[in-house]
Predict the 3D structure of the following.
Amino acid sequence: MAAVQTTGERTLNKLAIVSVLIVTMIFLAPIYWIVSTSFKPRNLATTVPPTIVFTPEVSPFVKLMLKRSQLREQPTPEEYAAAPWWERLVFDGGEKVVRDGKGEVQLSGYPSRFLNSLIVAIISTVLAVSMGTFTAYGFSRFKVKGEDDWLFFILSTRMLPPVVVAIPMFLMYRTFGLNDTHIGLIILYTAFNLSFSVWLMKGFIDEIPKEYEEAALVDGYTRMEAFFKIVLPEAATGIAATAVFCFITAWNEYVFALIMTRRDAQTAPPFIPSQVGSGLPDWTVIAAGTFLFLLPVAIFTFLLRRHLLRGMSFGAIRK
Amino acid sequence: MAHIELRNVTKTFGGKAALKNLDLEIADGQFFVLLGETGAGKTTTLRIVAGLEKPDDGTILIDGVDVGGWGAAERDVALVLQQYSLYPRYTVRENLEFPLKSKIRRVAPAEIQERVERVARTLRIEHLLERKTDRLSGGEMQRVSIGRAIVRKPRVFLMDEPLSALDAKLREALRTELKRLQITLGATFLFVTHDQVEAMSMGDRIGVLDRGRLVQVGTPSEIYARPTNTFVARSVGSPPMNLLDGAVRDGAAVTEAGFSLPISVASAHEGRPVTFGVRPEHLRLDPEAPAKARVHDIEDHGVEKIVTLATGDAFVRLTAPATQHPRIDESVGFSWNPEKIILFDRTSGRNLSAA
Ligand SMILES: Nc1ncnc2c1ncn2[C@@H]1O[C@H](COP(=O)(O)OP(=O)(O)O)[C@@H](O)[C@H]1O
Ligand SMILES: [Mg+2]
């Protein structure tokens, strides 16, 4: 309620806003750094003191997408003039675009890694959230023998740091031929997110009065129909919140992706730093890769922001 | 419309009995009210009839058919709850249509529309049809809930305290409306409440439930005039029946409250510890009477007064006509109608005059 504020409270309020702004700025600084670097000319990326004002370029993004090699000799003016704008940008950087025998432009490793990340994160999120929702519904609505023990067991899968099981997992995956496959990573991330998803969704579903479904049952609907028609729409907020968390976890996962994938199924997180090692690093290209990598989570979270806010306060009010 | 019978139904939750050997019969077209305090097992009974809960023991018959193995959808009953009967995301119309759109019913769209509109007219909620249900007042919500039950023409209406969340005036209005509806529909109702006024004013028959046991079934006047035990005696009537411990000596009631008045019951109970039950309307202020008391409190209801007398360490309530004007702390005499005194066994609380 908007109660009457005293002068003291008003000052306190202003102070709070200022501190929040400062904290926000501190947190946003690295993001600003990444975004600005990804638009800088290469020679301005590492200047001391940092360059704040510069003409933004898209060349880092072009370079990020294309397979390049060092120019041994400068292109002839005709070659340069005939090249499309993006190829010129590469020439300007002292490199050339690699083409295969048929003259087709070769892409760098980044687009496929990015695509892998999307595939693995989206599928594992869908799986974890849907299985989690069904499981949570079961625990919430039916008498399950040893319910508390089961729930504890499910949670206990998150009690070890995941790295602890990295070596056994690697060996298991090698035996089953799951190393460096999409399906392997999807299974891993789904399993990883499932416990979290079950717990979170159980909290949300517990909040939905079971009377709604029972009314539907009495009205002539099956349990399944009642679930899809009544429970699911009511749980949308929870599902959105859970999906965002699962997506972020899967999207950002680094250690297992590093161990379990090499090329075919490699995701962006282990790929981006691997580019630092080869020769003199081009920080603008790395920043561009990182910037693009940040986008999906930002967009996803932005799209679901209304649900998320409600979801957060929902959970907070609960207990 | 249907005839409902529960035979020997028992239900326990984690070792705690919610219903014990419940036998209940509801005739076709009857308005049956189950009256009981919170936790008596009323909701459990309804849920068992609806098929939302399985009894541990006993049989449920609808029209003579054992429906124990049937799911809620197959039983074709309608359920109205105190709250949460309506889907917050739906409009009133969508809520009313919902039961008709179930696959097991297959009602033609034109008929759905027609039925929804007829029900809306009956319940006077036509102007609300396009409104989301979370924008309704409590009374409107319950009207819609009732509407959702009647669009379907179910075999039985089960109502779980549908009026108890409403304020007094609305409750009274809906009570009349519901009763009228039941008469027009000729439907079988199992109506559950903890409100004795609701039970007395609506029920064709009342079943009084005490901690999972059905203690008495009868018409409102039977329950009122001949309660089978002190629990029932306390449950119905406002102001409640006076219950006074004492004993019968030489054809008179000698109470522990310190007064003695004649009674006209069989002297078989001479000397044993009993509880005398007398309704306030069977007591009167009477200057000549041997029983004396002090006026403790007076509630003036216009047509009559409810007078509380203090005698010994007990209070006795009686109704006095508006023409009498007792004053607080005045010493008065009172007497009762000896024909109307009910004797209960002191330890078991059972009515000794019955059976
Ligand atoms: N699902 C349940 N789990 C455990 N105990 C229950 C459950 N439902 C009801 N009970 C218990 O059974 C008894 C009767 O409950 P209920 O039928 O809801 O009473 P009423 O509707 O008359 O208030 C209460 O003691 C209640 O605590
Ligand atoms: Mg109840």
